[in-house]
Amino acid sequence: MGYDIDRFVGYVNEGLLCSICRDVLEDPLQAPCEHAFCTACIHGWLVHHSNCPEDRQMIDISLLRPLYRYMKNDLNRLQLHCKNREFGCEMVCSLESIDRHERECEYSQIPCSNAGCTVHIERRNLDRHLAVCEYRSRECPNGCGYTILSAEDTQHNCVAELRTELELLRSEMICRVEEAKHEMESRLDSQRRHMVQKESILQNEIEELKSQMSRMMSDVRSLMAAERQHRQELEQAELEKREL
């Protein structure tokens, strides 16, 4: 849908009106036959039709193009009233800048930012509303630190809230202790398995060293026996030499 023509100040050229909704073009597109439409209007039209609503020439959505630059410039220069005119806004600005103004307009109806509040109020009055909104939140004046809504003032009980908070903290602490306990047990089990594996490796190394020592001792005994045999042979040869 286009901009309501009644919002505009002065004459609006017929060529700047949508051929479907007959309002001033909004986000315009142009067909090869040079008829112009609002984007939303022509897209909706082509869902059920395949021709131009003005001259019935065949058109396809792929053939639609942006408005000619000179027409776009004429469109942007048009002057119109803010949509919040009925609420008191007297701003008149160009079509090119109207969206920016209306996003910031002090007369725009905006929702209250407090959760649960369904009130829509003018932007300029929002702060005043927030100060008295029944859904506004604030800290308990009795010092318990609990954040309450004005609507809950009568139900708020500091002792009950603190007791609930304490129970939550106790439950959280128990959970954390259990988690720390499980983590420590897991680490101890891991270290125990590592130590057992290390002990097994060391035991195998000791057994290997014992085996090597046993072989070395056997070799030493063999060498000593061979040496004695060699000495005896030398002594026997010396005796025979003396006899000769």
What would you say this structure looks like, in words?
By secondary structure, the chain is mostly helical. The model has no long low-confidence stretch (mean pLDDT 87). The protein is built from five helices and nine strands. InterPro entries: Znf_RING, Znf_RING/FYVE/PHD, Znf_RING_CS, Znf_TRAF.
Put the structure in a nutshell.
With 244 residues, this protein is mostly helical.
Features of this protein?
244 residues, mainly alpha, Herpes Virus-1, 3-stranded antiparallel beta sheet, two-stranded antiparallel ribbon, 5 helices
Largest sheet: spatial strand order: 2-1-3
Number of helices: 5
Helix and strand element order = EEHEHEEHEEHEEH
CATH topology of the domain at 5-104: Herpes Virus-1
What is the CATH C-level name of the domain at 5-104? Answer: Alpha Beta
Main sheet summary? 3 strands, antiparallel
Coiled coil: 192-243
GO biological process, one term: regulation of canonical NF-kappaB signal transduction
GO molecular function, one term: zinc ion binding
InterPro entries: Znf_RING, Znf_RING/FYVE/PHD, Znf_RING_CS, Znf_TRAF
